């Protein structure tokens, strides 16, 4: 399993997801509180953000524990955007520990993280190719393939999760994706929370702090966040 977090709203530094909160992703990498499978997320980490001068997101990821990267704290302070996504990884047993297997995955304007596990046979024929042999890379490739046909962010996540979940009843398919102006996430086998703020919305695997306002998303749900419509939750 993994832990991931995203922000949509007024520009914030990536450190607001990773280092600044009392229970940010750095802390969740070695002491998660709500994780249902696995106890340490030390098999890599990554973050992605959007800059107005680039049509595609900027991504930084490594296959080492997040606490082992001495350059990350300074980078996370200057990586600033109105749309952020970050993740720490606990690799599925038997899956490679390498940068190409580490979220966020990206294609065009999209970023995606997978928190969970799924049998590869349940997803391999949903995509033509993937950048890694790991299950998460195949899930990401399947979502991106649908996005490239023009399907919406939420619809793409929902289609892949429902199809893969039907083929592998034990799958855990919590996905978190963004395109720079909207977020979408699925709840299928693990926890997801959101919290509105005056200037945006946080979406996370587990709360980043103990402040009030965190709302749990029901199991087998799709969460959608846009600046115009706010937060919407619907069943999968």
From TrEMBL:
Enzyme superclass (EC): hydrolase
Gene3D superfamilies cross-referenced by the UniProt entry: Glutamine Phosphoribosylpyrophosphate, subunit 1, domain 1 (3.60.20.10)
Enzyme Commission identifier(s): 3.5.1.118
Pathway annotation from the record: Amino-acid biosynthesis; ergothioneine biosynthesis
One MF term in the entry's GO annotations: hydrolase activity, acting on carbon-nitrogen (but not peptide) bonds, in linear amides
GO biological process annotation, one example: ergothioneine biosynthetic process
Record's catalysed reaction(s): gamma-L-glutamyl-hercynylcysteine S-oxide + H2O = S-(hercyn-2-yl)-L-cysteine S-oxide + L-glutamate
Domain Glutamine amidotransferase type-2: 2-236
Organism superkingdom: Bacteria
InterPro entries attached to this UniProt entry: EgtC (IPR017808), EgtC_Actinobacteria (IPR032889), Gamma-glu_amide_hydrolase (IPR052373), GATase_2_dom (IPR017932), Ntn_hydrolases_N (IPR029055)
Keywords carried by this UniProt record: Glutamine amidotransferase, Hydrolase
HAMAP family: EgtC
Function, as annotated: Catalyzes the hydrolysis of the gamma-glutamyl amide bond of hercynyl-gamma-L-glutamyl-L-cysteine sulfoxide to produce hercynylcysteine sulfoxide, a step in the biosynthesis pathway of ergothioneine.
UniProt cross-references to NCBIfam families, sorted A to Z: ergothioneine biosynthesis protein EgtC (TIGR03442)
Protein name listed in UniProt: Gamma-glutamyl-hercynylcysteine sulfoxide hydrolase
Taxonomic path: Bacteria, Bacillati, Actinomycetota, Actinomycetes, Streptosporangiales
């Amino acid at each position: 399993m993994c832990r991931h977090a995203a922000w949509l709203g007024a520009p914030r530094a990536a450190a607001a997801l990773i280092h600044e909160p009392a229970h940010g992703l750095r802390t969740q990498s070695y002491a998660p509180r709500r994780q249902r499978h696995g106890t340490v997320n030390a098999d890599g980490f990554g973050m992605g953000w959007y800059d107005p001068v680039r049509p595609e997101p900027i991504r930084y990821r490594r296959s080492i524990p997040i606490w082992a990267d001495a350059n990350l704290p300074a980078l996370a302070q200057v990586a600033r955007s109105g749309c952020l996504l970050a993740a720490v990884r606990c690799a599925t047993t038997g899956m490679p520990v390498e940068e190409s297997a580490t979220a966020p995955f990206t294609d065009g304007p999209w970023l995606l993280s997978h928190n969970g596990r799924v049998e590869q046979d349940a997803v391999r024929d949903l995509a033509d190719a993937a950048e890694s042999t790991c299950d998460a890379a195949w899930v990401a490739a399947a979502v991106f393939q649908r996005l490239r046909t023009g399907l919406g962010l939420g619809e793409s996540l929902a289609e892949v999760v429902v199809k893969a979940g039907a083929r592998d009843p034990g799958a855990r398919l919590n996905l978190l994706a963004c395109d720079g102006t909207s977020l979408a996430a699925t709840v299928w086998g693990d926890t997801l929370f959101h919290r509105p703020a005056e200037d945006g919305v946080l979406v996370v695997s587990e709360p980043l702090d103990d402040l009030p306002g965190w709302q749990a998303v029901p199991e087998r749900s799709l969460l959608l966040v846009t600046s115009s419509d706010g937060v919407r939750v619907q069943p999968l």
